[in-house]
Task: inverse folding
């Protein structure tokens, strides 16, 4: 049985399609100014060009996608490689798992992270456990699931969620969220190349609004599992990811201007596995830790970071780790600003740590 | 005896006001499917007219009344005041749980400070 299964897999597997997670290198210093959806598009274009097994699929990806992330891909690579699926998230992910299990590269899109739950069983019970349950004989590492997440001003219950914490605790999955176009391209390329199933969350508020000089190198990649210190400081460590990094940076700027408080802002970038060493080093230095995310407070990922810091940095902390998060309610349509961890709430928490 | 009914349907308009179906749907697709001839509302109208239960005057009045009712409902809804911030915590559960009560107090305190 085992030999037959391996023979089937070997027959369908294409030539090595992925690099193991490689550190960032850029062959040239050329960049192009672009927004986040264009950066995501560029990463997928490179994957389709580099890896003949790579396919991109999901609802409405054919015409370019509801956020334009897949624009031009079907025209360039053909309908066999870039195609629409029925409205069935369980099927989209199941297809991706099966395709990846044959040693190929599947880039599956879930149109909004709010819709990922019909696929939760496939993700948790199949994709995440594929390698472990087969003792490494099989895997679906070629699977990357991309999905827009986060507040957009008027998304309400079902177009605003940030469910990253519901995946970050599932062993076998990697969970990634970029804060801008450069990170989107670099981290998505790394995610596609990574030999593990990865869930790649794209903050939809940043698709158009976030613009950056993105490296042209089609192989440009940023390492998974590594945080990025976006603003150094000695007084307070502020940890965030995705669009909330920008909120943290604004609060940090205000704290510096108003009270001379210098915050060290850290973008985790990868939540599973997360860069605990970076947070530990920073919190040990500053003695004050704040973690902030849009997702609800209870059992949001900040809880994990703070619990770890309480264990690892206890004797160095000047105040209890603080969390500034979304409310423990469904994401509301009205009063979105009251629900969200806005800049003023983050700033108040920064001062709270300093004045403890 | 068991019966299997397959209902063939077709989406006539765009998905929503933020969708433009012409971007991905050929203009002649509707015509090719013969949708106009099979439109259920049009067919019901023809059926009623044939039996003397419907005419153009009744159509004009009914359409006008319906439009007015819809407009009135829309205007009424738009005129409603925003629900109070406190309602953010209503109906999560049957009752307000301790942690939700705590978050409500914290939000109120934060808002009070902002206004101060």
Result:
């Amino acid at each position: 049985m085992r030999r037959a299964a391996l023979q089937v897999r070997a027959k369908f597997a294409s030539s090595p399609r992925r690099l193991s997670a490689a550190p960032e290198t850029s062959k040239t210093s050329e960049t192009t100014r672009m927004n986040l959806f264009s950066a995501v598009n560029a990463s997928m274009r490179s994957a389709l060009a580099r890896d003949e097994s790579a396919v991109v699929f999901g609802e409405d990806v054919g015409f370019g996608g509801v956020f334009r992330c897949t624009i031009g891909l079907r025209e360039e690579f053909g309908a066999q490689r870039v195609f629409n699926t029925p409205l069935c998230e369980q099927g989209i992910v199941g297809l991706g798992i099966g395709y990846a299990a044959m040693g190929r590269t599947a880039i599956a899109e879930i149109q909004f992270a709010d819709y990922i739950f019909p696929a939760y069983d496939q993700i948790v019970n199949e994709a995440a456990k594929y390698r472990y349950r087969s003792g490494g004989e099989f895997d679906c590492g070629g699977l990357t699931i991309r999905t827009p997440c986060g507040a957009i001003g008027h998304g309400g219950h079902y177009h605003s969620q940030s469910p990253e914490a519901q995946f970050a605790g599932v062993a076998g999955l990697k969970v990634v969220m970029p804060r801008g176009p450069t990170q989107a391209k670099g981290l998505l390329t790394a995610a596609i190349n990574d030999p593990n199933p990865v869930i790649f969350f794209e903050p939809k508020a940043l698709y158009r609004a976030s613009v950056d000089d993105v490296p042209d190198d089609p192989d440009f990649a940023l390492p998974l599992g590594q945080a990025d210190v976006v603003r150094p400081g000695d007084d307070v460590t502020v940890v965030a990811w995705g669009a909330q990094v920008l909120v943290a940076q604004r609060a940090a700027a205000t704290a510096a201007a108003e009270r001379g408080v210098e915050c060290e802002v850290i973008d985790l970038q990868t939540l599973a596995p997360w860069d605990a060493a970076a947070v530990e080093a920073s919190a040990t230095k500053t003695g004050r830790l704040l973690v902030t995310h849009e997702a609800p407070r209870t059992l949001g990922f900040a809880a994990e970071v703070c619990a770890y810091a309480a264990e690892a940095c206890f004797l160095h902390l000047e105040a209890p780790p603080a969390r500034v998060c979304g409310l423990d309610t469904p994401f509301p349509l009205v009063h979105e600003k009251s629900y969200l961890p806005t800049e003023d709430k983050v700033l108040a928490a920064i001062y709270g740590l300093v004045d403890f | 005896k068991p019966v299997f009914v397959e209902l063939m349907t077709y989406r006539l308009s765009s998905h929503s006001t933020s969708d433009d179906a012409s971007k991905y749907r050929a203009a002649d697709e509707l015509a090719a499917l013969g949708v106009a001839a099979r439109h259920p509302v049009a067919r019901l109208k023809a059926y009623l007219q044939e039996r003397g239960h419907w005419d153009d005057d009744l159509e004009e009045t009914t359409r006008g009344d319906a439009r007015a009712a819809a407009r009135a409902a829309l205007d009424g809804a738009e005129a409603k005041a925003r629900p109070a911030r406190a309602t953010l915590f209503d109906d999560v559960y049957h009752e307000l749980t301790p942690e939700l009560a705590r978050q409500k107090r914290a939000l109120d305190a934060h808002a009070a400070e902002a206004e101060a």
The longest helix of chain A spans residues 244-259. The longest strand of chain A covers residues 289-296.
